[in-house]
Amino acid sequence: MACLFPTRSQASAACKGGKVDLNGSAASPHREVRPGDRLDVTMPRGRRSFVVRGVADRHLPKAAARLLYEETTPPPSPEVLEAHRLERLLAPRHDAPAGKLSHRERRDRDRMRGR
Description:
This protein is α+β, with helices and mostly antiparallel strands. It is built from 4 helices and 5 strands, in the order αββββαβαα. Helices cover 32% and strands 18% of the residues.
């Protein structure tokens, strides 16, 4: 899963958490992929589909690794794109100069997003 997850441990956690399907069934972290396999991955922005085009036997730069798969997810509809744009515009601004949101602010933000 080159370049789909930032680290191998995050990819493994996604597989263990049921976020990755390989050819229609749940994928385990040790499962090998082959060219032609279909991956369905649940990410924060929604479900994405990929087709494996090749497998590398060693580490590759990201630009080369991205050539090993093809995304087959249909593009989002204009309504969805507009909803995302409005969500970003209407999101409450955090006035603190730096740092992360407090627990209460994160809960409120998640409630506004419908999570």
